[in-house]
Amino acid sequence: MPLFMDIHRVDGPVGMKDVAQAHQADLATQGAYDVNYLKYWVDESQGKIFCLVDAPDAETAATVHREAHGLVADEIYRVDEGA
I want to staple 29 with a disulfide (CB 3.0 to 4.6 A). Which of 34, 42, 68, 80 is the partner? Predict the structure, then answer.
């Protein structure tokens, strides 16, 4: 299945605790869509969140975010795993 990296831009700082809760909501929702949210990174001061997800396509990955917590990514890129 393809890998995708999504980027969320939040106005103002973002807290690790809030992102962790959103990630848990993704994990609870993803099974119904054959999606696997693998990892996330946060730039608290810049208000950016990056999520790595294994999904059939970008729209399905976005559907999980939308259903889990409503925080849909601003951008989603297909990425290839390097050596």
Answer: 68
The whole model's pTM is what?
0.90
The answer for residues whose C-beta is within 8 angstroms of residue 81's C-beta and 6 or more apart is 3
Q: How many domains does the chain have?
A: 1
**What is the reported pLDDT for 12?**
75
Full domain range(s) for residue 65 = 3-79
Q: Residues 15-35: pLDDT tens digits?
A: 889 899 999 999 999 999 999
User: Sign of dihedral through CA atoms 22, 24, 28, 32?
Assistant: positive
Give the CB-side neighbour count of residue 4, counting CA atoms within 13 A: 21
